[in-house]
Design goal:
The structure is a single chain. By secondary structure, the chain is α/β, with parallel strands linked by helices. Helix content is 28%, strand content 20%. The chain has 14 helices and 27 strands. A 9-stranded mixed sheet has the order 4-5-18-13-6-7-8-19-27, sandwiched between helices. α2 (94-105) packs parallel to α7, α2 (94-105) crosses α9 and α2 packs across α10. Residues 1-15, 31-96 and 101-112 have low confidence and may be disordered.
Length: 576
């Protein structure tokens, strides 16, 4: 009998059986009055199992969303006029268990508890979707999926009866290459998109390829037609151009158990909410600490905030998720073995992952990559969308990508550019320093220039067109520069053209820069004077097209349009 079953037999929370050993500084398992310390027995990882048979809804629970929305999905319901459908988006809070657990998981009690926690995990092979790993010198992209499949005790009345589940809530969590920041991109469930063909593993071990589908709801990328989470990963890649490394998926119980495990999640309301027709949420204005069913009601209500649309509900849920992250990273959670281990239990029991991260050891390695990201550098945003123009006015149930807003946002994520204000300020400081350096370099070009006949330089091709070095030599000869020495390929590629010279060659450098149209940023002056026979070195970079042509400008950092919704995880915002 493992630690959990012992605790259950005596009606004791397993987290209460772990105590701090003052001699070692570690948490250890304390069973009953015994002084013996044990580790829980190893439990084999739990694999995918058939969904439990559906049961009848409980009286008084709101019915699912209407199913008349076109095309391809099982329901409409993005209407801003109210109606059923509140329980779908509650799945977003599943991400608070997966993401926030990762952000705090490295180096605490999970190390001691991992054998037991391994048995809680549900591991799925997604037939080659994703990269299958992550590298320390590359960005990490994790797809967090909340499914509306009716699993978990107490959830019989939520979701669609007999449904195999959909990608009801999807967040692409991008972690920067340097591990200083992250962007959480929500993808609306009712987005009309294309789903590519996807190989899926069958129960008998064989692989079946599900054919592609065009112009259907994004949420059908999971469950429908036999599609697994790998299909959702492939759909996200095609939609965003971002390679997804891994997926995490969890059930409805996550929001209830995780919010309870951390002692409740603080929320703030700008006004009172009384959602009698939907989630049954009833709260006054001001601050509240929510857990269990009340937390679940908060994240699935859509009749109390914004204009009652699913898109506005995403904003509210992102605020809740940010608050849960702050709560999980707080000292009152990290220093409480009961809270932390209850959190570990709740997160792993509600978690399904791909085989690439299918163990607590692998999740701990991943946690080590993420745990130092400050919440002030985590940005929540939503893929920009607009009403589907193919639907008649007054019957808007689906959306399409708003490319003018989505393109620069996705370009920033693909380019590993942070959306946080902190990073923007740091970027502004860097740009100011670069401008100062450029001003100093510009001053270098204002001095005397040597006659063309006195300029002595070797020319190397480090990224320009084939034959650029010899072409430039001939061109300079025609401009009165007869002393072009060596030409050939540079030992390595360079992104930008550069001219290296000594302080006593500054007049030659200025003359050559004027002839070739080199900017100040291409001028690289050394610290020591050159000898009488030493020549300057010109290396043509990838920005070089032909002699005399202006150098290609460096790609500009895209500007994020003001209309792109975003919120930082460290900021408490009152729901409106």
């Amino acid at each position: 009998m493992d630690a959990q079953s012992r605790g259950r037999a005596d009606e004791i929370d397993p987290a209460d059986q772990w105590v701090l050993n003052p001699r070692t500084g570690n948490y250890e398992l304390q069973l009953g009055d015994s002084t013996a310390q044990q580790r829980p027995k190893v439990a084999a990882p739990r694999r995918s199992a058939p969904a439990p048979a559906p049961t009848a809804p409980s009286p008084g629970v709101p019915k699912p969303r209407r199913g008349d929305g076109p095309p391809g999905g099982r329901r409409g319901g993005r209407s801003r006029q109210g109606g059923g459908g509140g329980r779908r988006k509650k799945a977003l809070l599943i991400t608070s268990g997966t993401l926030a657990f990762l952000l705090v998981g490295g180096g605490v009690a999970a190390y001691l508890y991992y054998d037991h926690l391994n048995g809680n995990l549900n591991v799925t092979d997604v037939a080659g979707a994703g990269t299958g790993g992550f590298k320390k010198d590359q960005a990490i992209n994790i797809l967090v999926i909340g499914t509306d499949k009716r699993t978990g005790a107490g959830n019989e009345s939520y979701g669609d009866k007999d449904s195999v589940g959909h990608a009801d809530t999807t967040i692409l969590f991008h972690v920067s290459k340097d591990r200083t920041n992250a962007t959480a991109l929500s993808i609306p469930r009712d987005l009309i998109t294309n789903i590519p063909a996807c190989p899926t593993k069958q129960p008998d071990g064989s692989t079946k390829t599900i054919p592609p589908a065009k112009g259907i709801r994004f949420n059908t990328s999971l469950g429908q037609g036999g599609r697994d989470a790998g299909c959702t990963m492939r759909t996200v890649k095609e939609l965003t151009g971002i390679e997804v490394d891994h997926f995490m998926m969890a059930d409805f119980n996550a929001v209830k158990t995780l919010s309870t495990a951390v002692g409740g999640v603080p929320v703030c309301l700008d006004k009172a909410v009384n959602d009698e027709e939907g989630s049954q949420l009833k709260l006054g204005p001001g601050e509240h600490r929510l857990s269990g069913e009340q937390a679940l009601a908060f994240v699935r209500t859509r009749h109390g905030f914004g204009n009652n649309s699913d898109l506005d509900r995403i904003k509210i849920q992102q605020q809740f998720l940010g608050s849960m992250m702050r709560q999980m990273k707080s000292q009152e959670t990290l220093t409480s073995p009961k809270k932390f281990l209850s959190l570990a239990e709740a997160a792993t029991k509600s978690l399904s992952v791909d085989s690439g991260i299918g163990s607590i050891a692998k999740l701990t390695d991943l946690a080590g990559e993420l745990k130092d990201i400050d919440t002030k550098n985590i940005t929540f945003t939503t893929l920009p969308v607009k009403d589907n123009p193919a639907e008649p006015e007054g019957q808007k149930a689906t959306v399409v990508v708003e490319k003018s807003l989505a393109d620069p946002l996705l370009q920033m994520i693909r380019g590993d550019i942070s959306l946080t204000e902190v990073e923007k300020k740091e970027q502004a400081a860097k740009e100011a320093a670069d401008a100062d350096a450029k001003a100093k370099q510009d001053a270098l070009l204002q001095g005397n220039k040597a006659p063309a006949a006195s300029v002595r330089v070797d020319v190397y091709n480090g990224g320009g067109p084939t034959g650029a070095a010899s072409t430039t030599q001939n061109w300079l000869n025609g401009k009165g520069v007869p002393k072009v020495g060596k030409t050939g390929n540079a030992p390595e590629k360079v992104g930008a053209t550069q001219l290296e010279y000594a302080p006593n060659q500054a007049d030659q450098a200025r003359a050559l820069a004027e002839l070739l149209g080199l900017p100040a940023t291409a001028m690289k002056m050394g610290t020591a004077d050159a000898g009488a026979k030493t020549v300057m070195k010109l290396t043509l970079g990838a920005d070089f097209k032909e002699p005399g042509a202006p150098l290609s400008a460096a790609p500009a950092v895209p500007a994020l349009p003001d209309d792109v919704q975003q919120a930082q995880a460290d900021k408490a915002i009152c729901a409106k």
